[in-house]
Amino acid sequence: MVTLGIPQNTIAILQKYQFRFQKKYGQNFLIDTSVLERIIKAAQIGKEDCVLEIGPGIGTMTQYLAESAGKVIAVEIDKALIPILGETLAPYGNVTVIQGDILKVDIGELAEKYNGGKPLKVTANLPYYITTPIIMGLFERKVPVSGITVMVQKEVAERMQAKPGTKDYGALSLAVQYYARPQVVANVPPNCFMPRPTVGSAVIHLERHEEPPVSVQDEKFLFDIIRAAFNQRRKMMTNALAGAGDLHLAKEHIVWALRELGIPETIRGEKLSLPQFAMLSDRLRDFQR
């Protein structure tokens, strides 16, 4: 059996299959066993769990997952990696490899088929260019997922857990924190990957809320308000929201709503908390023209 996570073994398997890294897939394979152990620990994976791994690559993390979990479903977009996975995962009878695009896969169907409809735990070493669509897709599609533990670009991880008033705080912070409790569990330098990325990475664990921490009348409108507030982040909220054509809100109504909440009308979006955005969206919802 080829034990991956060790650089020379990774090199050997790549050479055997004459594998060429595809820039379009953002492929950077982990070659540090201590990082892999941190991911498994952070994800709190046990034999009772069914794990969905997004982008298994050559199967490095998949081997660790297979040792810890009851069942692993690995979805890989790159057809060239399927034969390699066939070899590296051959000893593991609890792994199913699916070739496909995770953004198009019916995750609810996978949960039904492999886990009796119960929530899956998601792990991934995510390509940087598609991190946000994948994570937000998991949340917004209401798929049965209890927790997400992923490797992402360090600055993206920092944005996910950022608090109001900080430079990293923005629409992504609010969206992630609406659905989950984020915690960065490890910073990972570029030398832990092959090939080396140009930026640092981080492992972040997102524990999904059973219920959102705020209650709103219209979830979509809440996120429309949040996006408008950060589209021009240096603008005051009144101007940012009034200038967002798709919101159809009059400036006087925005000023009224802010005053009702005791919020200065000169405030910028980066200062407002998630509960404040929720209350603001409820007050403005009936004023859409």
Supply database-style keywords.
289 residues; alpha/beta; Rossmann fold; Helicase, Ruva Protein, domain 3; 7-stranded mixed beta sheet; two-stranded antiparallel sheet; 39% helix; 18% strand; elongated
List the helices and strands and how they pair.
Elements: H1 7-16, E1 29-30, H2 33-43, E2 50-54, H3 60-68, E3 71-76, H4 82-88, E4 95-99, H5 107-115, E5 120-125, H6 131-140, E6 145-153, H7 154-160, H8 171-179, E7 180-188, E8 193-194, E9 201-208, H9 219-231, H10 237-242, H11 251-260, H12 274-284
Parallel strand pairs: 2-3, 2-5, 3-4, 5-6
Antiparallel strand pairs: 1-8, 6-9, 7-9
Brief synopsis:
The chain is an alpha/beta fold. It contains twelve helices and nine strands.
Explained architecture:
The chain has 12 helices and 9 strands. It has 289 residues and is of the alpha/beta class. The protein has 2 domains: 7-208, Rossmann fold (3-Layer(aba) Sandwich), CATH 3.40.50; 219-287, Helicase, Ruva Protein, domain 3, CATH 1.10.8. The strands form 2 sheets. Strands 4-3-2-5-6-9-7 form a 7-stranded mixed sheet, sandwiched between helices. It is elongated and about 70 Å long. 37% of the residues are buried.
How many domains comprise the coordinates?
2
Count of helical stretches? 12
Low-confidence stretches: none
Please tell me what the overall shape is. Answer: elongated
